[in-house]
Amino acid sequence: xxxxxxxxxxxxxxxxxxxxxxxxxxxxxxxxxxxxxxxxxxxxxxxxxxxxxxxxxxxxxxxxxx
Length: 66
Fold this sequence. Notes:
The chain is mainly alpha-helical. The protein has one domain (6-65): EF-hand (Recoverin, domain 1), CATH 1.10.238. Helices cover 64% and strands 6% of the residues. It has a two-stranded antiparallel ribbon. Helix 1 crosses helix 2. The termini are far apart. It comes from Mola mola. Pfam families: EF-hand_7 (PF13499). This is EF-hand domain-containing protein. Keywords: Calcium, Metal-binding. One of its GO terms (molecular function) is calcium ion binding.
């Protein structure tokens, strides 16, 4: 990572590979596309945080209703 405050497709590709979940380039680009709200082809901290909060909320809701 280059510490610019964004995650680009190359950085995400490397991160996924490091955690043992490698994905081909086209899949990494699809992940970026799905998270990228302003269409700049990278994930900002705010975009990343929004996904994290959404996932956490889903976990809490499942715990409450199951």
